[in-house]
Design goal:
heterotetramer; A alpha/beta (about 140); B alpha/beta (about 650); C alpha+beta (about 350); D alpha/beta (about 325); B: about 650 residues; alpha/beta; Rossmann fold; FAD/NAD(P)-binding domain; five-stranded parallel β-sheet; about 30% helix; elongated; C: about 350 residues; alpha+beta; eight-stranded mixed β-sheet; four-stranded antiparallel β-sheet; 11 helices
């Protein structure tokens, strides 16, 4: 066995309570595997996700952050994900602008019925983060082990 | 510091087979605040819940973390257990180590590691939880229905039949709405008045229904269960209590030049008028803009001829303030203005009419007493052309992007009725698609084509030009035979798009009910809550929510009534305690949060605050807990972070982030 | 007295860096600040004033004090190590050197700040005379001679040559270490340069600023003067003046949770900030007027009252240059002059 | 300028206003400071010239709390900020008598210093009555001249125009000084490789000393308590202990003002380290324009900002990846 430390990314997934969290539950009950690197935080709505949370995750050592919400038009609160969509578009564009690798952040709309999509999305995302490697450009050295 | 108990569920082998629950317990005990941790076969069982009660008793727990299945499964169960144990139910957090962990990972070590982290995040969150209490608000057992068309009438009758007081506010002098203007209804060809009038009578006679006609909603304050509404009763100039409805005043009135709203301006009416014979209430109003008495001070004929002495020129608008628990919006529709469709010559020829105008022409009480004739010369038409989708399904911004839904069917109806009554009249219909989903709808359309010989042409009309011979030249395309069509017609009928009645904008603003870009009121959920507005306590009935025909309108009216009854049946409303809350000392009063609130739950008050010794009056956001649904949109637009969401606070979420990334 | 040609300076710097950390003005993204020297660094000795003073060399904007880590349920505390590596600060101006004297009064007095003391003990200051003083300079008012800086080593840049004179023992030691690169020189040119600098200083607009009446004796009178109410109004409450100042010494102590421990660190604070001296009960200076007044009262009244008349302003003029609202200590001093506040 | 002073005196005398918010002559040729004047005598120190770059809109937050009306001098670009502050209920329109003052571009003394002009004794050519095309500077080291435009603030090169968006009256001529593309610098960065972008911002932001001047001068940053000062959010920082923190601060600050920032350029004007902070705000403005349609914050005091609005057809966040 190789002693070389395998890169295990830390990935935070913000999921809205009504669609995506339920989608993740469905992925679970359907036994649709995705890597354990993904840890889900439940929020009431994608519009609850503050850009600050995303930056904070990177600061504290996350290598990727993904936000999932109801499909546009299906928001439990009717309009939340529309606001979230604009916020995240601008934030991601800004991260790209300051040279943070594209793909470290992602938004995906996952309904409560889309267990398969949840699982596929997470698999894809983890793979993407693997290809990007460790988060260096948004790291806080103090938080590195 | 909290005293936290962590309970790790095996869920039989569902969790325990892939997660080392003992290890999770061991690791949880190292986390700050944790004073107790144990694992158990089935935490959701009675015995499992008893473990929680026991631990609370023995260790004085203030916070509880259950590592188990999804909170969507058993959060409520464990919250209740906590409550029984004397711990605030909102001091419970669930770490989902089944759906999000044991069920999707095979490797025990990996799954255990993840379960430990998920538990850690839940513990970090509970450390910052605060007890929350659901609020209570009372319910005024009275409903307001805005709009007195078939939608409003049906909703009001249904609510009233359930035993609740209902007020209908109608802006015109009579209830009845658009349906009262229709001649026949598809697909049964019932006489519209014959089926509507009994409903109108039922509403007006109902002891629980109170009708304000010639009235408008002026102001709405309050929230679900407790709205306060100002209704402006416009001066009718006729005393409702004295008038007997004999109609003499209308006969004698010398001013008969005002266009009749009811007949879509196709003929005129007197200055003192009831819109139509079966109007309810059967009490006329004086149109002060048309009345000679009001314009010149002379005349006063109606006063002289009124034996009941009901005429009251001095009458003033009256504001009535009433409290309601629920509000139903049933403001209906109007046809769009055709000024952007000049190619159809609507403004140039009297013989180009809208379908709603045709309804009036076909109606025995209409301007032509039900005879089909050209309005220009009174001659009977021989060639009639119907043009579909005028302003509907419009790609440019002249008209509406949506399908008005009812036009295909009423055009088939018109065509059939004309061919039935005047077999010598040729009827041609230009259409994009014929849409006939609905019970007996397609059969109806096929009858029009097959039995009545209506000529349907798939294609659009480019231009209608009045000819010197008085006829109309219709230039269209036949897309099936791929040829240009030139047709001389005697009358052209435009299936004009419908749009929400313009009054809805003001009402939506007053109710903080959201409207879409087409001014249709938005539903709380397009599929699952189609008759509720996102604003709690506001319900939607009829076309104000989207295009519909009569049966759909009536069905939705009933559904809206049921929702309103469900609300009125409650004495008190329990409110979700996970609501937004503004920190008074940090709030800038900038109104940004109110702009994104889908529920109109945020208002502003000028309050005196004491900011570390500085006393100032400040404009501060106040969240109405009865309205707030806890989405958190406001928290992110608040730059200072003054607005926070209880139960999902910034610090709680950040603590979870930190715990996961550690 | 020695000298070295400008083109040989990089050799000098690498020589110094062999045994010392070297800290000198470096241009990054168009701005010159003190920074650690590397082969690639763009050394800039021409800019008269670095944006920040050289204060960081002895009192960095932030520094760790200790780290707490958790081992099971026990907490382990690891203190940060003190400076043990010798270092050289090259190119400090006379005003900044004087700034260090002010800091010494604070940090070397009992209780001694060990972090600072360690840095002072291991640091050697090579000062550089000001070639072309600017209109915002007023070091003369505080008795500083920018033509003849007093440090471990004094240097002058004249016609492409750096003249070098060791003053203290530390200075001698450094000179010895780099002796091979220096050549002997006489002082004629240096004396000429000094005279030229002093002549310009005489012409500077602020050189005649009077500090008469600014001392501890007039504390309450100054404190209660209505002049402050007018003066503070444009103040944005930013920390620019504080952070560019060579003498501001206030710091805050904060904890940072790294996820695997807690770092206790200190960082500069500004008395202009609304949360400066914020305590559990609140803040004893609630208004910006009070905070504004504090800054200048401290520099011109409280500090001299407690430190034998030494002001905690050295006249570097950085705040004059940098204040976004064009406020500064000179305007404050003048305002009191005009108001007759000095009687 | 005299016309301005005379009008101010009139307004004070007839009781329309009880104070005037303008600029007071400084003690150097280039450092006038924002100031209140309450009497005709005080107005003798009033000055308005090319160095009066400060945007006085934000001062009106405090002035709105005072008794009586304040006459405030606003340049065309300042009026955008004022509108935005009205929209956010931070200033009281009724408490302001807005005199739209003419503007021919404002000067940045650092530009002169970058040209090696030092020891400045006097500057001529920067008065409003001047043509404002050449500056003549007397220094201790001789006389220098410089084209007015070469010493202008960055924001004036991308001038939003000479129209005042809101005012009670206008005094003085304005000039549109635009001579550069507003988004040229942003586009230049966008065209860089991720590595270059990262290096560029890392270098610029490494200079940040967290003095908060950018924030405190910003009319959009009008929070009573900034999140970065708040202990409630776990975000309070006073220094950039790690390079992450300067990124966090500037990204979040730009995000908080996105859709509200009028691009007044005050942040870049005041940064003591010359960090081109407008590049953050302008990036958001450019993105907003491209994604959601042209929007100029402060063009009026009513329109919904782009981040408190949406359309059903908005682009997805993946556009960021797709358009590369």
């Amino acid at each position: 066995m190789s002693i070389e430390k395998e890169f295990r990314p830390k990935i935070v997934a913000f999921c809205c309570n009504w669609c995506s969290y339920a989608g993740a539950d469905l992925a679970g009950s359907s036994r649709l595997a995705y890597p354990a690197d993904v840890k889900i935080i439940r929020v009431p709505c994608s519009c609850r996700v503050n850009p600050m949370f995303i930056l904070r995750a990177f600061q504290k050592g996350a290598d990727g952050v993904i936000m999932c919400g109801c499909h546009p038009g299906d928001c439990h609160y009717s309009t939340g994900n529309y606001y979230a969509r604009r916020r995240m578009t601008l934030l991601f564009s800004m991260l790209d602008y300051i040279g943070v690798e594209n793909g470290r952040t992602r938004v995906e709309w996952v309904s409560a019925a889309e267990g398969v999509k949840f699982s596929t999305t997470m698999n894809e995302f983890v793979e993407k983060i693997h290809s990007l490697g460790e988060n260096v450009r948004l790291e806080d050295l103090r938080c590195k082990n | 510091m909290q005293r936290i108990g962590v309970f790790v569920c095996h869920c039989g082998s569902n969790i325990a087979a892939t997660v080392d629950v003992k290890k999770v317990v061991e690791m949880a005990l190292l986390e700050p605040g944790v004073v107790h941790a144990e694992d158990y076969q089935y935490m959701c069982s009675e015995a499992g819940q008893a473990k929680i009660l026991e631990a609370v008793k023995e260790k004085g727990l203030t916070g509880i973390v259950v590592c188990s299945c999804s909170p969507r499964m058993h959060e409520a169960t464990f919250r209740k257990a906590a409550e029984r144990a004397g711990v605030n139910p909102y001091m419970v957090e669930i770490a989902n180590i089944r759906e999000h962990c044991s069920w999707i990972h095979k490797d025990m070590e990996e799954a255990t590691k993840k379960a430990v982290i998920l538990a850690r995040a839940a513990i970090a969150k509970v450390n910052l939880n605060a007890p929350l209490q659901p609020g209570e608000s009372r319910v005024t057992k009275r409903a307001l229905v805005i709009g007195g068309g078939i939608a409003g009438i049906q909703t009001a009758i249904d609510i009233a039949d359930a035993g609740y007081e209902v007020d209908i506010v109608e802006k015109t002098p009579s209830i009845g709405g658009r349906m009262s203007q229709l001649d026949k209804t598809f697909p049964t060809l019932d006489c519209s008045a014959c089926i509507l009038t009994p409903k109108m009578v039922e509403a007006s006679a109902h002891e629980k229904i109170n009708i304000y006609t010639y009235s408008e909603v002026e102001k709405v304050t309050g929230f679900v269960g407790d709205f306060t509404v100002d209704i402006r009763k416009k001066a009718r100039s006729v005393d409702m209590n004295k008038c007997t409805g004999c109609g003499v005043c209308q006969e004698k009135c010398p001013s008969k030049k005002a266009p009749s709203e009811f007949n879509r301006g196709l003929n005129t009416r007197s200055a003192i008028y009831t819109p139509f014979a079966q109007a309810i209430p059967n009490v006329p109003v004086i149109d002060r803009d048309a009345c000679i008495k009001f314009k010149t001070g002379k005349c006063g004929l109606c006063e002289k001829v009124c034996q009941a002495g009901a005429i009251d020129y001095a009458q003033q608008d009256e504001i009535i303030t009433e409290k309601y628990g629920a509000i139903v919006v049933a403001t209906g529709f109007d046809t769009i203005k055709l000024d952007k469709y000049d190619e159809y010559a609507y403004s140039q020829s009297k013989d180009v009419i809208t379908s709603l105008e045709l309804e009036r022409i076909m109606n025995a009480a209409g301007p032509t007493k039900g005879h089909l004739e050209r309005l220009s010369d009174g001659k009977a038409p021989k060639e009639m052309v119907f043009i579909q989708c005028v302003g509907s399904r419009c790609a440019d911004n002249r008209g509406k992007s949506y399908c008005s839904k009812i036009c295909c069917m009423y055009t088939a109806k018109h065509a059939m009725l004309i061919r039935d009554k005047y077999p010598d009249v040729n009827v041609t219909v230009f259409y994009i698609d014929v849409r006939t989903p609905g019970k007996n709808f397609d059969e109806f359309y096929r009858r029009a084509v097959e039995e009545y010989g209506v000529n349907y042409i798939k294609g659009q009309v480019g231009k209608v030009a009045p000819l010197p011979n008085g006829k109309l030249l219709v230039q269209g395309a036949d897309l099936i035979d791929n040829k240009q069509i030139l047709k001389e017609a005697d009358m052209v009928v435009l299936a004009t798009a419908i749009e929400p009645d313009p009054s809805v904008r003001k009402i939506a603003t007053m109710l903080t009910a959201s409207i879409d870009t087409n001014n249709f009121l938005t539903e709380a959920h397009p599929k699952l809550r189609p008759v509720e507005s996102p604003t709690a306590g506001v319900f939607l009935s009829g076309v104000c929510q989207g295009p519909k025909d009569i049966p759909e309108t009536v069905a939705q009216a009933g559904a809206a009534a049921v929702k309103a009854i469900g609300l009125l049946a409650k004495d008190k409303l329990m409110t979700n305690p996970c609501t937004a809350k503004a920190d008074e000392l940090m709030c800038n009063g900038c109104s940004t949060c109110a702009n994104v609130c889908p529920y109109g739950a945020i208002t502003y008050e000028v309050k005196q605050v004491n900011d570390h010794g500085i006393r100032e009056d400040r404009r501060i956001a106040v969240v109405n807990n009865a309205l707030c649904q806890g989405c958190g949109a406001c928290t992110v637009v608040c730059p200072s972070g003054a607005m926070d969401l209880q139960g999902f606070s910034n610090r709680q979420i950040l603590a979870e982030v930190d715990a996961i990334c550690r | 007295m020695f000298k070295i040609a400008k083109e040989n300076l990089s050799a000098l710097f690498s020589k110094i860096a062999e045994t010392n950390e070297l800290y000198l003005p470096v241009k990054v993204a168009n701005q010159t600040n003190f920074a650690y020297w590397t082969e690639e660094a763009e050394v800039d000795l021409d800019t008269l004033k670095t944006v920040k003073s050289a204060k960081d060399a002895f009192f960095p904007q932030s520094e760790n004090l200790y780290t707490c880590t958790k081992e099971d349920k026990k907490i382990k505390i690891t203190p940060e190590e003190l400076q043990s590596q010798n270092f050289v600060v090259f190119g400090m101006k006379a005003c900044d050197v004087k700034g260090v004297e002010v800091l010494d009064k604070v940090f070397l007095a009992e209780p001694v700040d060990t972090f600072y003391a360690a840095r002072r003990a291991h640091g050697t200051i090579v000062a550089l005379a000001c070639h072309e003083p600017e209109e915002t300079c007023f070091c003369k008012v505080f008795g500083t001679d920018c033509a003849d800086p007093v440090a471990d080593v004094a240097t002058w840049m004249i016609d492409g040559e750096l003249y070098w004179k060791a003053i203290t023992e530390k200075g001698e030691a450094l000179t010895k270490a780099v002796e091979g690169l220096l050549v002997d020189a006489d002082e004629t040119k240096v004396e000429e340069e000094k005279a030229a600098i002093r002549a310009i200083v005489e012409k500077l607009p602020y050189s005649n600023l009077s500090l008469e009446g600014w001392n501890g004796d007039v504390l309450m009178e100054k404190f209660e003067s209505p002049v402050w109410e007018e003066l503070y109004k444009p103040c944005l409450a930013c920390g620019t003046c504080t952070f560019v100042c060579p003498t501001c010494q206030c710091y805050d102590i904060k904890d940072y949770d790294t996820g695997h421990g807690v770092q206790r660190y200190r960082c500069w604070d500004s008395c202009m900030y609304s949360d400066f001296t914020m305590m559990a009960h609140g803040n004893n200076r609630n208004s910006q007027m009070q905070r504004f007044r504090q800054r200048f009262m401290h520099k011109l009244v409280y500090f001299p009252a407690n430190n034998d008349g030494m002001y905690s302003c050295v006249g570097c003029g950085r705040c004059v240059d940098k204040c976004p609202a064009s406020l500064n200590i000179v305007k404050v001093i003048k305002a009191f002059e005009n108001q007759g506040g000095n009687e | 300028m005299q016309e301005l002073v005379n009008r101010a005196k009139e307004l004070l005398a007839d009781g329309t206003v009880v104070r005037v918010l303008g600029w007071k002559a400084g003690d150097l040729p280039y450092n006038p400071e924002p100031a209140y004047f309450t009497s005709a005598e005080e107005l003798d120190n009033f000055v308005y010239n090319g160095f009066c770059g400060a945007n006085l809109s934000k001062y009106m937050i405090e002035a709105s709390k005072l008794e009586g009306k304040t006459m405030v001098c606003l340049k065309p670009c300042d009026t955008y900020s004022f509108n935005q502050l009205i929209k956010e209920h931070r200033v009281d329109r009724d408490k302001a008598y807005i005199v739209g003052v003419g503007c021919k571009g404002k000067l940045n003394v650092d530009k002169l210093k970058e040209m090696g002009i030092k020891g400045i004794q006097s500057i001529s050519g920067a008065e409003m009555s001047d043509a404002c095309d050449t500056l003549t500077i007397q220094t201790l080291y001789g006389e220098k001249t410089c084209a007015y435009a070469d010493a202008m603030l960055e924001r004036c090169h991308v001038c939003k125009g000479k129209e005042h968006m809101i005012y009670d009256e206008i005094i003085g001529e304005s000039k549109d000084t635009k001579d550069a593309e507003r988004f040229a610098e942003v586009e230049k960065i966008e065209a860089m490789s991720p590595e270059e972008k990262f290096a560029f911002f890392q270098k610029e932001l490494s200079k940040c000393i967290r003095c908060n001047a950018c924030r405190n001068v910003c009319p959009a940053c009008s929070c009573r308590k900034c999140v970065f000062d708040s202990t409630k959010f776990d975000t309070a920082q006073k220094a950039n202990v790690d390079s992450f923190e300067e990124k966090m601060f500037h990204i979040i600050r730009a995000f908080h003002v996105a859709g509200r920032c009028t691009d007044c350029g005050e942040c870049s004007r005041v940064c003591p380290q010359g960090i081109p902070l407008h590049l953050f705000n302008r990036k958001f403005i450019k993105d907003i324009n491209e994604f959601y349609g042209e929007f100029q914050a402060g063009a009026d005091s009513e329109a919904r900002g782009p981040l408190t609005n949406f359309t059903f057809e908005d682009c997805e966040p993946s556009i960021v990846t797709e358009r590369r």
